[in-house]
Design brief:
There is one protein chain. Helix content is about 85%, strand content about 0%. The protein is an all-alpha fold and about 200 residues long. The protein has one domain. Helix 4 packs antiparallel against helix 5 and helix 5 packs antiparallel against helix 6. The protein is globular. The chain starts with a helix and ends with a helix.
């Protein structure tokens, strides 16, 4: 049996989807870590596995973007240790491979190549930000783009993962916004009582 025949068999399809669920599991684990640098490095593991799954699905843009993200993660994990990593020049240098990849794979996947390319560019900008609210808001756009791509390429784990991420981010935005409003309300009450 040829490899392409295996991928189209029931066992092959299930195997490829299981690979996606393994990537999703490592991604969930990475968010349990405390330090920002540890999270970013730990996310390199699911990026490698997503690269494998998306390659097997014939989703070459997504696979290539994930492969590039491994190197971006390793670099950004050292952002606090090396001042040059925080510069805008470094940000633009990181974005160049994503753009090149998107241009090359556009010939293969057409307009669908734009979704993971845009997601990777937005995520690069978001990861450079130290503002957590800004990072969360930009991550919704990133996940929405990946969600549409995962639907297109039939990555079940990718669809579930991005749906979970979007839901989680929306909940956290409302939760932190509500806490901010409560704090403002308490501050107002205290200042009125002082008058």
């Amino acid at each position: 049996m040829a490899f392409s025949e295996f991928l189209n068999s029931t066992v092959g399809i299930v195997t490829v989807q299981i690979i996606g669920f393994i990537a999703m599991s490592f991604g969930i684990y990475s968010f349990q870590l405390k330090r920002r640098s540890s999270i970013i490095i730990a996310q390199s593991v699911p990026s490698v596995i997503w690269t494998l799954q998306l390659s097997l699905l014939g989703a070459y843009t997504g696979a290539a973007q994930n492969a590039i993200s491994v190197f971006r993660g390793i670099l950004l994990a050292n952002k606090d240790k090396r001042a040059w990593i925080s510069s805008r020049i470094t940000l633009f240098a990181i974005m160049i491979p994503y753009v090149i990849c998107g241009v090359i794979t556009f010939r293969i996947e057409g307009a669908w190549a734009l979704a993971p390319t845009a997601a990777s560019l937005i995520q690069s900008v978001a990861l450079f930000s130290d503002n957590k609210t800004y990072l969360r808001a930009m991550s919704i756009a990133v996940s929405a783009l990946w969600l549409s791509y995962n639907i297109r390429v039939a990555s079940i784990a990718g669809i579930i993962c991005e749906t979970f991420v979007i839901t989680s981010i929306i909940i956290s935005l409302f939760r932190y916004r509500k806490k901010g409003e409560e704090k403002e309300s308490k501050d107002t009450e205290v200042s009125e009582a002082d008058i």
